[in-house]
Design a protein that fits this description.
The complex is a heterodimer of chains A (475) and B (104).
Chain A lengths: L8 H19 L7 H19 L5 E3 L4 E3 L1 H28 L2 H20 L3 H19 L6 H32 L4 H10 L4 H17 L8 H8 L2 H26 L4 H23 L5 H21 L3 H32 L10 H4 L1 H15 L5 H11 L6 H26 L13 H19 L2 H14 L3
Antiparallel strand pairs in A: 1-2
Chain B lengths: L5 H21 L3 H25 L6 H31 L13
Helix pairs in contact in B: 1-2, 2-3
The chains are: A mainly alpha (475), B mainly alpha (104).
Chain lengths: 475, 104
């Protein structure tokens, strides 16, 4: 059977870009290294253009090992957009820090890992993508290698990440042993035909634990606040959006495509996991005084909302997850870019130092406000529409979960608005205006506009995710 | 005479995995924890190869998977040891209990 390797061209381009940045960084003089950020942005935008060209392509390479469908393409575009925004928002930060070559190329390889995950058709591809992403992120997390906090975050991340990978792999090996196949869709057919065995349930539980770690679902979330606080802020942003979105993409692929045959056995577990994650994430966010930890807990809560879409394992649920994940990327990146830039100027992550930000930099304050209100789900912002899609899938059978989501959304408004209050009401201790550099301003304006526009006019994105969710079941 | 069957391999792998998991959760030394993670990954490899031999004897899926696992584990340990060296320079210790700058 001839293989159509052109289906792999986006990944090849990304890999080539990562290597090119690495080589350019080595051969260019130190003064020219600031240009690497722009090369990365332009390269990633080019790859995104190629990825848009793949919209509507349906196919698989190497007998189902690597899938190309609208579902995968949508996720890839999400990752690429996130990577572009992160690079734009972090150029100045990295220039201050040094080591641009390694930073940009590792970031591109992390993106490549996510793209491989979104397209994974069997367990080997899944594992390779996951590890490419995870190892790249480990390197990025301890990028400030002379700073204790960053390295400590790195060691916590690598130990827990490799442990969770091992648990996940054990689950995968059990499922392989019980079905004799590692192809996700084939496993789905075999699982549906055979009776359920306890070993299969054990495998599913281990998968859920492994993926739950990656998306930081409670009770596997303990690493994320520490790592989010210790890592360099742009890395935290990318970790919060990219790593989580990619893990969700593969989580959906595995659970909805490979394990729908035993849906009744895992639906309740996922529902409880989602409920606990929403509750703990929102409640523990309340006392935080560090903006990165606050955003870390809020992102745990967001993971809980997104998990709700998995409970029913239907096309509507997948659509809700994709829609919400897309919005989540923009809202979170907006908030984290403000935090990155604020840290650059003031060297502080404390919420109380954000006092009077509205006077010092109205743009940063308003972006933070919009991002947080969107995450809290206040209409007419995008987060409201996203939560609406997610929770409509479960109101029929899991009303209690919808109830938890509703109440905890109200709770979340409290801690989000507390930040807004500090920014708008309090007088600044130091009232020098903060001048926002143009790449950062681009990121901030883009994230804010997307959040506003999708909130008011969700139609086009909704159609796109519909097509993507539909293609999921065609393989 | 006792013949070795699939069950033996799976039980061995389960025991190895449990020992590794216990070590990860109880050891204080970062390097010991890395070694215990390797134990867990090797338990997975035993599983994969045993399943490959007994369940799908005509295909080599499990073997190929195991090779990938070994390769990735090597990369992971490489990064892990580098980080341990970096933290040792900062803190002059590899004891996990002392890594407490970050608290929730």
């Amino acid at each position: 059977m001839p293989f159509d390797t052109s289906l792999l061209s986006i990944e090849m381009l990304t890999a080539a870009l990562g290597l090119a940045v690495l080589i350019l960084g080595i051969i260019s003089p130190a003064s020219a290294k600031k240009g690497l950020g722009w090369i990365t942005v332009i390269g990633l935008l080019g790859v995104s253009g190629a990825a848009i060209g793949f919209w509507g392509t349906q196919g698989s390479v190497y007998s189902g090992m690597y899938l190309v469908d609208n579902y995968a393409t949508f996720w890839k575009l999400t990752f690429l957009v996130a990577a572009v925004l992160v690079v734009l928002g972090s150029m100045r930060y990295v220039d201050n820090l040094g080591g641009q070559t390694e930073y940009y190329s590792t970031l591109i390889f992390a993106t490549l890992g996510m793209m491989v995950m979104a397209s994974a058709g069997d367990f080997i591809t899944l594992f390779m993508g996951l590890e490419l992403m995870t190892i790249s992120f480990i390197i990025l997390v301890c990028f400030r290698k002379n700073e204790s906090k960053s390295v400590e975050a790195g060691i916590k991340y690598i130990l827990l990440a490799s442990m969770s990978s091992a648990v996940l792999l054990y689950g995968l090996s059990l499922i392989y042993g019980l079905t004799g196949s590692i192809n996700i869709y084939e496993v789905g057919r075999i699982v549906a035909m055979n009776p359920v065995s306890p070993a299969l349930i054990l495998g599913v539980v281990m998968l859920l634990a492994g993926f739950g770690f990656k998306i930081s679902a409670v009770p596997f979330h303990m690493w994320s606040p520490d790592v989010y606080e210790g890592a360099p802020t742009p890395v935290t942003a990318f970790l919060a959006v990219g790593s989580k979105a990619a893990s969700l993409a593969i989580l959906l692929r595995v659970f909805v495509a490979a394990l729908p045959g035993i849906w009744e056995h895992w639906a309740m577990v996922v529902a409880i996991l989602a409920g606990v994650t929403i509750i703990v994430g929102n409640l523990v966010a309340i006392p935080q005084d560090n903006i990165k930890r606050l955003l870390a807990y809020s992102s745990i809560a967001q993971a809980g909302y997104i998990l709700v879409g998995l409970v029913t394992a239907t096309e509507a649920g997948i659509k809700g997850v994709m829609f919400y994940a897309f919005l989540y990327v923009f809202a979170t990146l907006g908030a984290f870019t403000v935090a990155t830039y604020f840290y650059n100027i003031t060297g502080s992550d404390k919420i109380k130092d954000y006092a009077g930000l509205s006077q010092r930099s109205p743009l940063m304050a308003v972006v933070m406000l919009v991002a947080m209100l969107s995450m809290a789900g206040i209409p007419p912002l995008a987060g409201f529409v996203g939560k609406f899609y997610l929770f409509t899938t479960i109101v029929d059978n899991y009303l209690w979960l919808a109830f938890i989501g509703l109440i905890m959304s109200m709770v979340s408004v409290y801690y989000y608005l507390r930040v807004a209050l500090v920014m708008y009401r309090d007088e600044p201790a130091d009232s020098t205006p903060i001048k926002v550099s143009s790449p950062v301003a681009i990121t901030l304006v883009v994230t804010m506009l997307v959040t506003l526009i999708i909130g008011v006019y969700p139609g086009p994105l909704s159609e796109v995710v519909n097509a993507a969710a539909h293609s999921f079941f065609l393989q | 005479m006792l013949t070795i069957s699939l069950t033996h391999y799976v039980v061995l792998s389960a025991i190895l995995f449990s020992i590794g998991l216990f070590g990860v959760l109880s050891k204080k030394n970062a390097i010991s924890v890395l070694i215990c993670i390797e134990l867990m990954l090797n338990a997975v490899n035993i599983n994969l190869i045993a399943f490959s031999k007994y369940i799908t004897p005509n295909e080599f899926i499990g073997q190929i998977f195991a090779i990938f696992v070994i390769t990735v584990a090597a990369a992971e340990v490489g990064v892990g040891l580098a980080i341990i060296i970096a933290i040792y320079r900062n803190k002059l210790s590899v004891n996990l209990d002392e890594f407490d700058w970050l608290k929730w």
